[in-house]
Amino acid sequence: MKKALIAGITGQDGSYLAEFLLKKGYQVHGIIRRSSLGNTKRLDHVVQNQTLDERNLMLHYGDITDSSRLEKLVGNIRPDEVYNLAAQSHVQVSFNEPIYTADVVACGALKILEAVRSNLGRETVRFYQATSCEIFGNSKISPQNEETPLHPDNPYACGKVFAFHNVRLYRDAYGLHASNGILFNHESPRRGETFVTRKITRGLAQILAGKEEKLFLGNLDAKRDWGHARDYVEAMWLMLQQPLGGDYVIATGESKTVKNFLEVAFGLVDLNWQDYVEIDPKLIRPVDVDSFIGDSSRARTMLGWSPRTSFLELTREMVIRDLQEEGLSPDRYGLKI
Ligand code: NAP
Ligand code: F7E
After folding, report:
1. Backbone φ and ψ of 28, nearest 5°
2. SS3 43
3. Is-cis flag, bond preceding 281, omega within 30?
4. Which pLDDT score is estimated for 48?
5. Atom of ligand 2 at shortest range from CA of 87
6. pLDDT of 229-245, one tens digit each?
């Protein structure tokens, strides 16, 4: 039985990846932070599904900033595959907390990479780093691919660039099977509530439930290449099944504005978003990336990967799940599950 270790298993992607690997027959180990309230909401259904003699999901306390703990976990578990998804992943928060973000996003990635290199033979382990299209920033080149020059435009992106180069370096210097998944935005009903898509679908459901009257947002003209997280975790795994490590852009190749997302989400329940949305200047970032659009030809050719979920299907799934969270029947709005 193959063993995988996931840092960031309690996040959106970590929970989908854990499900994916468990279905493939892996023993999955996850690193979770101690929290005074639970942080395993996205995993509870998986944990509860396990029968006692089939406990293939194991959670270990740890923090990506704590190298001694990472050394111990990697040394004891001896995983075949290590996925580093742990991050302070909110761009706007990274402007407020740049030092902490760098500790987690940049140094955290290097710490787990070093724990892998020093504990495990390069023949036996494969490493995945959650890199982001944010490394391209406001690029002059569109669409962006693996050759696009890096131009990070926020502290989070600067941290991801540091990690990106270290993964490449560990591949070249030590022969480690290490890959950067350069993922463009990916969303789902499990998306954190302060990212724009989930903020919109959750806000819409709260308006319909009569709990809120308005939804406050920032830059509505920003364009993002939005895919579904469930599709993107498959690409992470595929990268680690290749004979050599490498860097791959994962994207849909379609870019939409925040306004487009509002139109589709509110349109699904026959509302006009302009009646409900107000701009809050506090939500405008010191620098925002105007537009992302990815060219994932390399992944499509070499990994045989392509996205399965359309923009409309993604938005629809998120709206339905947030209506249900508010105790509203999607049927009432003509939305069949
Ligand atoms: P997410 O929902 O914010 O999850 C982040 C995970 O990292 C959570 O499990 C979080 O734990 C954990 N974490 C944060 N700080 C940590 C620390 N100090 N020690 C250990 N764990 C820590 O992010 P996501 O959307 O799943 O994204 C997964 C990864 O892909 C991240 O590295 C992100 O930067 C990157 N990425 C995301 C996207 C996207 O569009 N979603 C695109 C490109 C790259 P808690 O649950 O305890 O907070
Ligand atoms: O913003 C605009 C905002 O926070 C998208 C992370 O997963 O993807 C994510 O980063 C756009 C931006 O995602 C609000 O200014 C308008 O232009 O959902 P977001 P992000 O910043 O693109 C990348 C690939 C990652 O790697 C990151 O980890 O929407 N926007 N109004 C808003 N954004 C937020 N959050 N909240 C608003 O009210």
Report:
1. -110, 125
2. coil
3. no
4. 81
5. 28
6. 999 999 999 999 999 99
Please tell me the distance from the alpha carbon of residue 46 to that of residue 278, in angstroms, as a whole number.
38
Residue 49: which of 83, 80, 22, 12 has the closest Cα? Answer: 22
DSSP string computed for 75-125: HHH--SEEEE------HHHHHHSHHHHIIIIIIHHHHHHHHHHHHS-TTT-
CA dist., res. 204 & res. 328, Å (int): 12
b/e burial code for range 261-291 (CB count within 10 A of at least 16 → b): bbbbbbebbebebeebbeeeeeeeeeebbeb
- Please tell me the residue having the least CA distance from ligand 1 atom 6: 8
Ligand nearest to the CA of 32: 1
Q: Provide the percentage of residues in the chain whose pLDDT is more than 90.
A: 95
* Residue-level pLDDT at 46: 86
Q: Please give the model's pTM, rounded to 2 decimal places.
A: 0.98
Can you give the C-alpha Rg of the chain in angstroms?
A: 20
Alpha carbon 219 to chain centroid distance?
A: 21
Q: Looking at this protein, which amino acid is placed at residue 216?
A: F
Q: Report strand pairing: 277-279 vs 81-84.
A: unpaired
Residue listed under structure tokens 């402007």: 95
The verdict on the CB of residue 194 being under 6 Å from ligand 2 is: yes
Q: What is the pLDDT of residues 13-23, one digit of tens each?
A: 999 999 999 99
